Amino acid sequence: MQSQTLIFPAALGVAPVSTTGEPRIEADWFDDALKKARAKAKLPDNSVGDEKLPVVITTRFVVNGEARGDSAIYDIGYGIAGRWLSGHDVTLRGLSLVTRNVGKAPAAAIDTRWSTLVAARK
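Below the sequence we write its predicted structure tokens.
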């Protein structure tokens, strides 16, 4: 794996994040923005089950000396729990492939998915 870039829904207002060499996802990249987006969408303070945050992940890698890339939409599974004095904590739970077909407007696709997921949770 050479690198990966994650694109978040516009509702979070988070710039894309890139890593080199070690693929990973860190809650620190988006947890405050996620909490604000959930509050703005009037979602519950605590998750009942696993919540989903759609992202586009573009991965660059080398196979037999040839550089390749792949982009796909994934859901980051997370939980959110509130505490009266210390605020809310986001816990990452996993990653699920949604589709490899990101089309020519991947940001629009995750924005639509975010809106759909938010509407389903209300």
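The chain is about 20% helix and 45% strand.
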